[in-house]
């Protein structure tokens, strides 16, 4: 029988997998908020868009479903029976689940069947009742549940159904012979009885009569069904009497059922006598069916056993204490979908595999590869034992903790998560586990943003998302359909995943721009970033020369106006004031705040710094910042610092202006900056004696005398100076090797100044920067790390002195490479073609950093102000957000609606007719039958509907169909008035 929708309102709610997917989105959103993962916002909002678009997809798929159900002719207690259901999808392809309840004797048993329907496809499913008991059994609460392609949503189509079957008792095995009696028939004065020999007459048709006994000639003349009866000579019939049986009710009925079955097989007439009911003597299939139905419906009915509860979506694996499966040999997962899921996981883990320790990457790849090979039917690979999996968990945790020092950090934590994910893949046995791999893969993809948020990482996250969503789609349909051999790469599903992600991009972009972004984290965790290339907390020989070996970017500086001249590009970092004899350290003491007076007429630099992650608290700025970013501070040594070290790429806005620093300075600090160690290993008597000879000079002349030592002393600038002894290193450098890098020159100069009575200290940071002509900004690399000196002069305060420039002016006027080869050069060398191409790529990277990675709450508020919106939370903001969000979803909704329509023009016209009448066509229902059914519901339009059916038949089956027929069909459909139904 064909079944129709009971309501135009289709309930829509997420599946268990959909709720878990939403939980993943919320979890990643919280992580993005706390750690300011700007690119993570993009992926999170993209997945949110997929979650919303697929809801419309599921609802649209549900509206194009139709169903017919056929009850079985006979059913026997204790033997599996099935209702036959034919499902048709008139729209786009979609996974469908047929759900119903089998009601019997006051109990309800859930029935389900899964199908994967193509566009315009019709399939037959069996709603199986495994062990029915005797009594009436009917279907209730029948629902067609349409899913989206990924199985995130389910839209239920409630249908009206009247499918019922009487479950007969199971015949008793080896039942004794039944009693017999002499039964007379109506002919020959009682000498004949019912039989199959001679024609006896006609009687009205009774449900269950065999079609071969129906008199079709009489039915054609009169229009009524009648059944032919036959008789035979008087003979013996079986007397199937309740009183001839013994025992409990079910045992008696079982024996009677055995007798009825035997009589039916032998063609013996019988009569049936039950308490309160009796069937006269008869024979044939119809008589046997009536007898068995009487046995099935005889009260009282037996109780239906309870069904076991279904398992939850998320459970622990058995080897971690989770529930064990009751199946001794569970059905293996199909090879192609599982191998594709493992491939998608491998792609999602790829950036980490290149970053984690070699043994961790090898372990992850081995586990994924082993599980993929084990899935192939021809290979006899045993599952990894639980004890081995548990041992691998312990080994991975201990090894990663030894490597990174913690398992809570971004490096150790993500590596451990990857190892656990690979172990979960190794013990995957069910569809639920396979779906869980998709969620974990998406989560691991988002963790890569802790380490990099560049364009390549963004492209990788898109590729991984396409693959993982396609893997989810392979598990959304009927798993049994995937068991057949097929390609590992599902190209249609890959295309569908890519299209849905593309349709979600407008909404993701809108949320990326307008979603409120806090200025600080929600909580702080002890995250160990590991060793980072950058300035150190103290200066020791070789520290800055080691940095000079790296061309990694330290930060990029964008200026609103012209760039400062090269000799003003000193990016101030940590200040070192305590000399130990071996090196210089920072001082944590509290000193009175010094003065800072802008130089009259000095330019004000407006610029932004995009700082690469370094794990250090100090910020780099030109002397001296007049405004500070939020959560930043300026120490008494004019060193900008933050309470939150840069663990991610961060953008800061600065205003700086050259100033007179510390003309009013704490005497305690000045005394500290005159201090030299008195130990014999740090006495440096030659340097002390040289500086003591300058004490009669004015302070400015002492500074020049110190610089003259380097200008006239045959010193050389090199990255590979000879190793200095542990004792009296300053003397060994000034009067021995005379070869060094910036830390050698600044350290020796500061020592000479202190010995000469001039307060001095060392400032670390960066000097210079490469101008990118494509972007007009400075690229400051680790090789630009530099150390210079500051001396305090009365009336002038702290004055910058760069003794390295006295030896190699090219270090300030040009670049490091030029300084090493041509120390006296005043301009950088010409760039090669490869270097120019690299700068163009860096310009793109800088734009990406500016508009994507560094987009924060301050930039968002500035953008909203330019748009005339007061800020997040205001009525105008909320109105604009929801309005624009609705507009961004229009392309996705149009795509979903278009996919739900048949591609065949003639079928599309019938689809539009069903939409106008709010009456879907049943599976297998001909256009003529559909038009007659619709005419019965809308009599005023009956002639028009019949014309539509005739035109469709002429177009589809006529001898010479023409485009005119199609235009006529479309015109007739448009004339049908729309029908509103509740």
Notes on the structure:
- The protein is 40% helix and 21% strand.
- It is of the alpha+beta class and 982 residues long.
- Helix 12 runs antiparallel to helix 24 and helix 27 runs antiparallel to helix 28.
- The N terminus is likely disordered.
Can you give keywords for this protein?
alpha+beta; single chain; seven-stranded mixed sheet; 982 residues; disordered N terminus
Provide the fold topology.
Blueprint: E1 2-3, E2 12-14, H1 16-35, H2 38-63, E3 65-70, E4 75-76, E5 81-89, E6 94-104, E7 107-117, E8 122-129, E9 135-147, E10 153-158, E11 164-168, E12 180-183, E13 192-204, H3 216-222, E14 226-233, E15 235-241, H4 249-266, E16 270-274, E17 277-282, H5 285-296, H6 335-353, H7 358-375, H8 386-404, H9 410-426, H10 431-447, H11 455-474, H12 491-514, E18 538-539, H13 543-547, E19 553-559, E20 570-576, E21 578-579, E22 584-585, E23 596-598, E24 605-611, E25 621-622, E26 625-627, E27 632-634, E28 640-642, E29 650-656, E30 659-661, H14 667-672, H15 685-692, H16 699-712, E31 716-717, H17 729-737, E32 739-740, H18 742-755, E33 760-767, E34 770-772, E35 777-781, E36 785-793, E37 797-801, H19 803-807, H20 810-813, H21 816-821, H22 833-853, H23 857-866, H24 875-899, H25 905-917, H26 927-937, H27 942-957, H28 963-975
Parallel strand pairs: 4-11, 15-16, 31-32
Antiparallel strand pairs: 1-3, 2-10, 3-5, 5-8, 6-7, 6-9, 9-10, 9-11, 12-15, 13-14, 16-17, 18-22, 19-24, 19-35, 20-25, 20-33, 21-22, 23-30, 24-29, 26-29, 27-28, 33-36, 34-35, 36-37
């Amino acid at each position: 029988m064909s079944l129709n929708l009971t309501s135009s309102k289709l309930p829509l709610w997420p599946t268990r997998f959909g709720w878990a997917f939403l939980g993943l989105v919320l979890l990643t959103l919280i992580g993005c908020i706390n750690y300011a993962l700007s690119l993570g916002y993009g992926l999170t909002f993209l997945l949110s868009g997929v979650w919303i678009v697929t809801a419309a997809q599921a609802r649209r798929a549900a509206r194009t479903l139709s169903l017919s159900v056929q009850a079985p002719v006979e059913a026997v207690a204790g033997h599996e029976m099935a209702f036959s259901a034919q499902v048709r999808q008139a729209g786009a392809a979609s996974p469908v689940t047929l759900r119903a309840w089998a009601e019997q004797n006051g109990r309800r048993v859930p029935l389900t069947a899964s199908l994967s329907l193509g566009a315009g496809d019709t399939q037959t499913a069996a709603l199986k009742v495994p062990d029915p008991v005797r009594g009436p059994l009917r279907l209730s609460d029948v629902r067609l549940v349409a899913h989206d392609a990924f199985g995130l949503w389910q839209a239920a189509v409630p249908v009206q159904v009247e499918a019922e079957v009487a479950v007969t008792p199971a015949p008793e095995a080896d039942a004794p012979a039944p009693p017999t009696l002499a039964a007379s028939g109506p002919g020959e004065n009682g000498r004949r009885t019912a039989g199959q020999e001679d024609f006896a007459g006609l009687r009205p048709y009774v449900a269950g009569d065999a079609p071969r006994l129906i008199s079709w000639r009489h039915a054609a003349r009169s229009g009524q069904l009648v059944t032919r009866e036959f008789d035979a000579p008087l003979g013996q019939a079986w007397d199937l009497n309740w009183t001839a049986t013994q025992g409990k009710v079910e045992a008696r009925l079982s024996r009677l059922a055995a007798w009825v079955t035997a009589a039916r097989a032998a063609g013996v007439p019988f009569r049936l006598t039950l308490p309160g009911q009796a069937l006269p003597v008869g024979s044939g299939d119809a008589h046997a069916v009536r007898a068995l139905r009487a046995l099935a419906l005889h009260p009282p009915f037996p109780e239906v056993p309870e069904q076991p509860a279904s398992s939850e979506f998320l459970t622990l694996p058995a080897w971690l204490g989770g529930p064990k499966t009751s199946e001794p040999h569970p059905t293996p997962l199909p090879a192609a979908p599982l191998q594709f899921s493992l491939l998608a996981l491998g792609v999602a883990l790829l950036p980490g595999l290149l970053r984690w320790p070699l043994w961790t990457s090898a372990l992850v790849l081995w586990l994924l590869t082993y599980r993929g090979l084990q899935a192939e039917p021809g290979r006899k690979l045993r599952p990894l034992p639980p004890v081995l999996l548990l041992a691998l968990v312990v080994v991975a945790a201990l090894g990663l903790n030894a490597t990174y020092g913690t398992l809570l950090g971004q490096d150790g934590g993500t590596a451990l998560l990857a190892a656990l994910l690979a172990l979960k893949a190794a013990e995957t046995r069910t569809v639920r586990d396979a779906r869980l791999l998709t969620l974990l893969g998406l989560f691991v993809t988002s963790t890569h943003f802790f380490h990099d948020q560049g364009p390549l990482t963004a492209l990788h996250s898109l590729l991984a998302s396409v693959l993982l969503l396609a893997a989810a789609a392979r598990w959304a349909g009927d798993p049994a359909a995937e068991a057949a051999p097929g390609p590992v790469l599902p190209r249609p599903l890959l295309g569908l995943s890519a299209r849905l992600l593309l349709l979600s991009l407008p909404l993701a972009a809108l949320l990326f721009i307008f979603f409120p972004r806090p200025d600080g984290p929600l909580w702080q965790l002890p995250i160990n970033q590991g060793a980072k290339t950058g300035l150190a907390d103290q200066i020791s020989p070789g520290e800055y020369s080691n940095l000079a070996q790296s061309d990694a970017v330290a930060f990029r500086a964008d200026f609103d106006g012209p760039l400062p001249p090269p000799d003003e590009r000193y990016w101030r970092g940590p200040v070192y004031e305590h000399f130990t004899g071996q090196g210089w350290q920072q001082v944590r003491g509290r000193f009175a705040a010094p003065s800072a007076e802008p130089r009259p007429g000095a330019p004000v630099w407006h610029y932004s710094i995009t700082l690469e992650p370094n794990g250090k608290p100090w910020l780099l700025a030109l002397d001296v910042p007049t405004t500070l970013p939020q959560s930043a501070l300026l120490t008494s040594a004019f060193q900008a610092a933050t309470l939150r070290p840069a663990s991610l790429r961060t953008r800061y806005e600065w205003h700086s202006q050259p100033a007179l620093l510390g003309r009013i300075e704490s005497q305690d600090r000045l005394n500290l900056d005159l201090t030299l160690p008195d130990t014999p290993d740090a006495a440096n008597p030659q340097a002390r004696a040289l500086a003591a000879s300058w004490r009669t000079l004015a302070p400015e002349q002492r500074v020049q005398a110190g610089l003259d030592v380097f200008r006239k002393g045959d010193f050389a600038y090199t990255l590979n100076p000879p190793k200095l002894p542990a004792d009296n290193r300053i003397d060994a450098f000034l009067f021995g090797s005379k070869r060094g890098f910036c830390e050698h020159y600044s350290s020796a100069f500061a020592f000479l100044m202190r010995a000469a009575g001039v307060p001095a200290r060392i400032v670390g940071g960066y000097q210079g920067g490469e101008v990118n002509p494509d972007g007009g900004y400075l690229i400051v690399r680790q090789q630009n790390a530099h150390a210079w000196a500051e001396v305090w002069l009365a009336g002038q305060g702290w004055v910058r002195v760069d003794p390295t420039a006295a030896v190699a002016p090219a270090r300030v006027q040009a670049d490091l490479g030029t300084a090493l080869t041509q120390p006296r050069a005043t301009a950088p060398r010409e760039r090669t073609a490869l270097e120019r191409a690299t700068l163009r790529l860096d310009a793109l990277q800088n734009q990406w950093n500016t508009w994507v990675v560094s987009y924060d709450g301050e930039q968002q508020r500035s953008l909203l102000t330019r748009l005339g919106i007061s800020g997040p939370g205001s009525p105008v903001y909320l109105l604009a957000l929801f309005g624009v969000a609705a507009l961004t979803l229009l392309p996705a909704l149009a795509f979903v609606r278009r996919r739900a329509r048949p591609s065949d023009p003639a079928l599309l016209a019938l689809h539009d007719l069903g939409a106008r009448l709010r009456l879907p066509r049943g599976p297998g229902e001909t256009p003529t039958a559909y038009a007659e059914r619709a005419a019965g519901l809308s009599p005023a339009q009956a002639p028009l509907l019949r014309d539509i059916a005739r035109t469709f038949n002429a177009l589809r089956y006529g001898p010479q169909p023409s485009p005119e027929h199609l235009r006529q069909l479309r015109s007739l459909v448009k004339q049908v008035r729309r029908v509103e139904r509740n």
